[in-house]
Amino acid sequence: MATERDITLSQADYLRILIHGTTAFELLRTGLELELFERLETDGGLDVPGVATALGVPEQPARVLLLGLAGLRLIELREGRYVNTELVRAKLLRAAPRYLGALIDVQDRVINAAMGELSEAVRKGTNVGLRHIDGPGSTLYERLGAHPELQHVFYANMGDASRKSIGQFLDAYDLSDARRVLDLGGGDGSNSIALATRYPGLEATVFDQGSVVELAAQRLSDPDLRRRIRFHAGDLFTGELPGGHDIILVFHIFEIWSLERNVELLRRCRAALAEGGRCLVYNFVSDDAGTGPLSAGFLSAYFLTLASGEGMAYSAADMERAVLAAGFTRAERHDGFGFSHALVVGHR
To answer: For this UniProt entry, which segments traverse the membrane (predicted)?
Structure first.
């Protein structure tokens, strides 16, 4: 049933967005780059000459940009002035709590060029789109180490996604009995910071590549958090996982790898856990039937074409099976999270 939050399109317009998707993205990105949405919000709407003056551009290209964004239902015309829609106010203004700027940046700077290789990636079953980012390594994560600016853009988006999804996890799953948490592939430390903030007695170790944990350590300024959060550089599959932890977080990692490699990683987690410990697998997921949601389809194409060449947004059922195959005695599944997430807990 349609609600005021739905955008209804004809089949013809739906196909137009599919065919002209690159143009749609560039209209959105240009609106952000020129700070059009902020200008409209600050001024309570602007006409074409007002937009041209505010952006410092000629009126003709201003008309082109406004026409495209209005066609995409991002802005609308009211009494001769263009104004932002509620969608823009919620997610495309920089002050909005769910601002998507970091996602748009990584899509623009890192992902889009590689996605033209999807058909070859499907044929060959590997991440051929990685050729667009030079450097050592066979995954995006390794190659970003040779590109500090792109690495910053990438982990800014990962941190933003983590901060948006960790809140619902903390509200739904109790970790008050945890003492020491190992945050595998912890990126910029967002998950560990959120956990240590929620639970003042908890200590956390962020485990990731050397160049990544350096970025994470630089973010940490609070003296108490600096005392309770440690950083450990290493490789997920070849480095020794630090022991003595009663919780291991596998957050936004499962989707990177094949199911076989995930079982291998989870076996390593089980071996590193204290007796009675838990391994928490929390990820974007598809439905069990493999028919959606749309975000899972987009993410899966990205993992195949660029990130690793072997991952996808798996279902929670896939996660359950992998946890049990790794030797955990019990798999506890939690559905119903927003942002297309699910949690599976493996009990040692």
So the answer is: none
Closest CA to 77 of 86, 88, 66, 91: 66
Residue 240: CATH number of its domain: 3.40.50.150
User: CA 275, 276, 277: angle at the middle one, nearest 5?
Assistant: 90
Domain span including residue 88: 11-98
DSSP structure class, residue 286:
B
Asked, as a colleague might, if the bond just before 293 is cis with ω within 30 of 0, I would say: yes
> 108 in a domain, yes or no?
no
Phi, psi torsion values for 232, nearest 5 degrees: -130, 120
Burial class of residue 299 in the structure, from the number of CB atoms within 10 Å of its CB (0-12 exposed, 13-18 middle, 19+ buried): buried
| Residue 191 main-chain phi, psi, to 5 deg | -65, -45
Last residue of a domain, one of 57, 76, 98: 98
| 242 within 8 A of 265, measured Cβ to Cβ | no
| The pLDDT of residue 2 is above 70 | no
More confident residue, 244 or 92: 92
3-class state of residue 261 by DSSP: helix
Q: What is the pLDDT of residue 4?
A: 59
Q: Which of 57, 65, 77 is nearest to 32 (CA)?
A: 65
In a domain, 207, yes or no: yes
CA-CA distance, 252 to 1, in Å (whole number)?
A: 31
- 193, 225 contact by CB (below 8 A): yes
pTM of the model: 0.91
In a domain, residue 285? The reply is yes
pLDDT digits (tens, 9 = 90+) for 200-254: 999 999 999 888 887 778 778 889 998 999 999 999 999 899 999 999 999 999 9
* 209 and 281 part of one domain: yes
